[in-house]
Predict the structure.
Amino acid sequence: MEGMDLSGLDLSGISVSGIKMFGVNLENADLSRANLMNAGLREANLNSAILVDADLGFADLSGADLTGVNLVGHDLTGAEMAEMMDAQLSGAGLTKAVLRGVSLHSADLSGATLVEPIMEGADLTNANLAGANLNRANLEEAHLRQADLANANLAEVRLLNADLSQTLLIDAVFTDADLAGTRFYEASFKGAMLFHTNWAEAFCEQIPGIRLVRCTESFL
């Protein structure tokens, strides 16, 4: 099925578990209730595809275009599960999605809705999260180094021991966020709203070979 054009088709309930579908065009296709477990969807076009109740467990979505896809409530748990490196998820709905340990390295999540997702240990290195809604997201121990979080809503987010080094946080909202133990080395906070945040053991600078420096008002 590699490279096939299945755009716009009604594929609801289809089972393609374990099948390689690299580069397949599924734009606007209806994949409701589809079994895509272990499917190879690398570089597939899933732009605006319907994935209601679809099983994406352990699917390879590396480089896939998931622009506008709604993944509300989907469970993509596990570091070795869904690979979504470089995925296009601009404007996607991921409310309450379970994304523990999932690789979203360099993914485009700009403007995405990520309200209350579980993303513990997720790799969001160099990801574009500009304007994303991450309200009440669980990002404990997540990797967000060099990510773009400009204008993102991070109210009530849980970022315990996460790495936000060199992250762009311009005009981001951190109201009531838990930032305990988070690393913010060389991060840009210009215009960020940091009301009622927990900065306990958070670090904003590292002096090589000497010590860590805790966050203070001078860094913000």
